[in-house]
Automatic annotation (TrEMBL):
Disordered, as annotated region: 34-54
Species annotation: Streptomyces spinosisporus
Lineage of producing organism: Bacteria, Bacillati, Actinomycetota, Actinomycetes, Kitasatosporales
Protein name: Phytanoyl-CoA dioxygenase
Length: 88
């Protein structure tokens, strides 16, 4: 709890499985390839995807203990994300 209070985040190793992270990285690569930034673009480039249409990108919250751990840290009812259930 001290680390969270000081830094605003906590790293919890191996909560999200490596294969799941690889799937997310592949999906991000697909999104960028389908809508790349202009060639002359420098700096950040954003893609705004509908969360409900992106189960692979939701998976680190919905298919792992991450959301439940966040609720344990912040307190039940204090962590909210559209379309994400904490009881999975």
């Amino acid at each position: 709890m001290h680390e969270f209070a000081e830094q605003g985040f906590v790293l919890v190793p191996q909560v999200v499985q490596e294969d799941l992270l690889e799937q997310v990285a592949r999906r991000i690569d697909e999104v960028v390839a389908a809508d790349p930034p202009p060639a002359d673009k420098r700096g950040p480039h954003f893609s705004f995807l509908r969360t409900k249409d992106e189960p692979t990108l939701r998976a680190p919250l919905t298919r792992t203990p991450v959301f439940g751990l966040a609720e344990e840290l912040a307190g039940a009812g204090h962590v909210h994300a559209a379309g994400v259930r904490s009881d999975v």
